[in-house]
């Protein structure tokens, strides 16, 4: 079968079986083309609450599929490839967070959405990289424990000096691996390009950037800018997608190492198998987990996230 034939079969099956396909922007182009909705974690979490189909296939990583299940427990939610996890989402256990809450009584726990459903059950509010500054800024609490990403957390702390934010030693192994020297070298190689980076990068990289923002923030900035060249400091698929979207501009990946193998685990054939009812992994969460984790996501939505 050609790629186009597989895509046509997926489109036919999803119509026949009332399936909605959600895909994170880090997915391959051939998957984004057949998805009903694409976007960053923030956009996907909003879409997860709205979709009316009986079945949702999430092309992304496990915490994203769990978010859909938490918001729509009555739906059948399938993670497109059962091996696609996010290493950052599992960096802390529920017991470690409970111990922190004891150590810092009265502090609100803010969880990056890149956390497991289990972890969300002991947190107060979720944020995404798009919404973190706005949400933490609109919280009444001055004292905050931010989990798990210390790089996104320090980006938020810089923007909101009035808050007292406790950070942990967690982070995205893909974004955090970019070295400050790589940013210096890329800027030297492309002196006319603007450097756009994701806040999951370390501060020594982010402080060299012309713009710091989420996946959608970076895409919107590059597409609407008058500038012609950009160094893209997030997963390398974004430089590729932008190059197709803006053929008159130039996009350079900040680092060859900016590849998330978990985001790359899903293939178009995986999506076809999910549509046939043969592949992927159905997300199963117990009622108590859904109820408690939902509080954390609802709090994000109530604060305007
Ligand atoms: P956003 O989708 O919030 O930009 O996050 C990037 C990411 O690493 C997703 O796992
Ligand atoms: Fe997790 Fe980082 Fe991959 Fe996103 S890019 S899924 S945060 S490991």
Describe the structure.
The structure is a single chain. With 305 residues, this protein is an alpha/beta fold. The chain has three domains: 3-85 and 263-285, NadA-like (Rossmann fold); 94-172 and 290-302, 3-Layer(aba) Sandwich (Rossmann fold), CATH 3.40.50; 178-253, Rossmann fold (3-Layer(aba) Sandwich), CATH 3.40.50.10800. The chain is 42% helix and 17% strand. The chain has 14 helices and 13 strands. Helix 1 (3-16) runs parallel beside helix 13 (268-276), helix 3 packs parallel to helix 4 and helix 4 (62-71) crosses helix 14 (287-302). It binds 1,3-dihydroxyacetonephosphate (13P) and iron/sulfur cluster.
List keywords for this structure.
Rossmann fold, binds iron/sulfur cluster, four-stranded parallel β-sheet, alpha/beta, binds 1,3-dihydroxyacetonephosphate, 305 residues, 13 strands, five-stranded mixed β-sheet, single chain, 14 helices
């Amino acid at each position: 079968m050609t790629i186009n034939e597989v895509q046509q079969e997926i489109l036919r099956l999803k119509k026949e079986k009332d399936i909605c396909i959600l895909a994170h922007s880090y997915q391959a182009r051939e998957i984004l083309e057949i998805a009903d909705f694409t976007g960053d974690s923030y956009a996907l979490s909003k879409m997860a609450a709205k979709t009316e189909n009986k079945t949702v296939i999430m092309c992304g990583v496990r915490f994203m599929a769990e978010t859909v299940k938490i918001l729509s427990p009555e739906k059948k939610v399938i993670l497109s490839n059962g091996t696609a996890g996010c290493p950052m989402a599992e960096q802390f256990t529920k017991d470690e967070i409970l111990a922190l809450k004891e150590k810092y009584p009265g502090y609100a726990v803010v969880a990056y959405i890149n956390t497991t459903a289990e972890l969300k059950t002991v947190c107060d509010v979720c944020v995404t990289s798009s919404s973190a500054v706005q949400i933490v800024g609109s919280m009444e609490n001055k004292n905050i424990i931010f989990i798990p990403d210390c790089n996104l957390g320090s980006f938020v702390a810089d923007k909101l000096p009035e808050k007292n934010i406790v950070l942990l030693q967690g982070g995205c192994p893909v974004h955090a691996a970019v070295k400050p020297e790589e940013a210096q070298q890329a800027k030297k190689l492309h002196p006319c390009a603007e450097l756009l980076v994701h806040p999951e990068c370390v501060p020594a990289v982010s402080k060299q950037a012309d713009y710091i923002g989420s996946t959608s923030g970076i895409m919107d900035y590059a597409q609407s800018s008058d500038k012609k060249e950009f160094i893209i400091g997030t997963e390398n698929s974004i430089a590729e997608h932008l190059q197709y979207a803006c053929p008159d501009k130039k996009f350079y990946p900040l680092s060859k190492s900016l590849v998330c193998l978990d985001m790359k685990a899903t293939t178009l054939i995986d999506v076809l198998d999910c549509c046939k009812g043969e592949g992927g992994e159905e997300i199963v969460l117990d009622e108590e987990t859904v109820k408690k984790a939902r509080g954390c996501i609802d709090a994000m939505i109530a604060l305007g996230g």
